[in-house]
Amino acid sequence: MRTNHFAMADAGWPGCAKSLKGVILDLCGVLYDSGEGDGVAIPGSIEAVKKLKESDLQLRFCTNETQATREKFVAKLRKLGFDISVSEVFPPAPAAIAVLKERGLRPHLLVHDGLLPEFDSVDKTNPNCVIVGDAAENFSYQNLNEAFRVLIGLEKPVLFSLGQGRYYKEMDGLKLDVGVYMKALEYACDLKAEVVGKPSPTFFQSVLNDMGLKPHEVLMIGDDLLNDVGGAQHCGMKGVQVRTGKYRPIDERHPTVTADGTVDNLAQAVDMILGQRGH
Amino acid sequence: MRTNHFAMADAGWPGCAKSLKGVILDLCGVLYDSGEGDGVAIPGSIEAVKKLKESDLQLRFCTNETQATREKFVAKLRKLGFDISVSEVFPPAPAAIAVLKERGLRPHLLVHDGLLPEFDSVDKTNPNCVIVGDAAENFSYQNLNEAFRVLIGLEKPVLFSLGQGRYYKEMDGLKLDVGVYMKALEYACDLKAEVVGKPSPTFFQSVLNDMGLKPHEVLMIGDDLLNDVGGAQHCGMKGVQVRTGKYRPIDERHPTVTADGTVDNLAQAVDMILGQRGH
Question: N- or C-end of chain B: fewer Cβ atoms within 10 A?
Answer without folding.
Answer: N
